[in-house]
Amino acid sequence: MSGIQILRTPEDRFENLPGYPFWPHYTTIEDPDLDSLRMHHVEEGPKDGPPVLLLHGEPTWSYLYRKMIPLLAEAGFRVLAPDFIGFGKSDKPSDRSMYSYARHVGWMRQWLDRTATGPLTLFGQDWGGLIGLRLVAESPDDFDRVMIGNTALPTGDHDPGEAFLQWREYSQTTPTFNIGGIVSRGTVTGLSEAEIAAYDAPFPDERFKAGARAFPALVPISPDDPAAPAQRTAWESLRRFDKPFLTCFSDKDIIMRGGEKVFQKLVPGAAGQGHFITPNAAHFLQEDAGPMLAERLTTFIRGTKP
């Protein structure tokens, strides 16, 4: 036994969330320091449909994809939207030191190996890209194509910018980490009180937010960051990734705007793709433009052959 407290959000916190009628699915994964962990995911659409992996970021959970999941399922895809450990309906180690970039990638690799079959399409945003692109780089044969928005794969060799540094400082020092409010402020359209409450639902109190607080501090911002060597190795792989790779960054994301240029320049599979800027959308583009993104993702999958 690890001795680390593993928190599990009570199920009644998730009752009657607006726009989220999805049945929960759980997978047990192992960690040598934490024993067993329960990881949640949404699974919709035909079991034999082409699998689409939707990875959320910070500080959200699979609720972020509620506007996209039904449309993708109706289009015939097997839609998989997991909650990272520390988020949503997944287990939450209470000790912030238990969260690392490498551990998140390892947890997701275990979950994929036990849950998904067949080459996948990845849609990743924010940390959904940071983790998802590591998976793509480590196992490119497991993925048919990739679509990303408002994300990065930093090595720590470049200045992350003042806006990100301010966000990082806030996340580590604020007494109350107001998750629903953070998500609402990261949209153009704003959220209703019920939607803000849905983003807060996984976190009954500050003890449950160790993973959410940890993520900003895990982004490599210096060349000697513990994750930097693995990031550089991942880029070596992505520089050879020639399967379809599409970017859809937002026009009103003050931190990530312009980040698509790096991928378009360095990833071979990005050449000749129909890259677009998601209009009137901020960091959480799934909130501002979910149906449009689902439509573009469907077209991307149907119109490309790896």
Essential attributes:
single chain, 306 residues, two-stranded antiparallel sheet
Any overview of this molecule?
This protein is about 35% helix and about 15% strand. The protein is of the alpha/beta class and about 300 residues long. The protein has one domain (about 5-305): Rossmann fold (3-Layer(aba) Sandwich). It is globular and about 50 Å long. The model has no long low-confidence stretch (mean pLDDT about 95).
CATH superfamily: Alpha/Beta hydrolase fold, catalytic domain
Q: In sequence order, what are the helices and strands, one letter per element?
A: EEEEHEEHEHEHHHHHEHH
Rg computed from alpha carbons, rounded to a whole number of angstroms: 18 Å
Which strand order does the major sheet show? 2-3-5-4-7-8-9
Mean pLDDT: 95
N- to C-terminal distance: 45 Å
Computed structural class: alpha/beta
Low-confidence stretches: none
Please indicate the count of domains: 1
The proportion of strand residues reads 15-25%
CATH fold annotation: Rossmann fold
Largest sheet: 7 strands, mixed
Q: Any guess at the CATH architecture? A: 3-Layer(aba) Sandwich
Query: Roughly what percent helix?
Result: 25-40%
Could you give the topology of this structure?
Elements: E1 6-7, E2 24-31, E3 35-44, E4 51-55, H1 69-74, E5 78-82, E6 92-93, H2 101-115, E7 120-125, H3 127-138, E8 143-149, H4 162-173, H5 179-185, H6 193-200, H7 210-218, H8 228-238, E9 245-247, H9 260-266, H10 285-303
Parallel strand pairs: 4-5, 4-7, 7-8, 8-9
Antiparallel strand pairs: 1-6, 2-3, 3-5
Helix pairs in contact: 2-3, 3-8, 4-7, 5-6
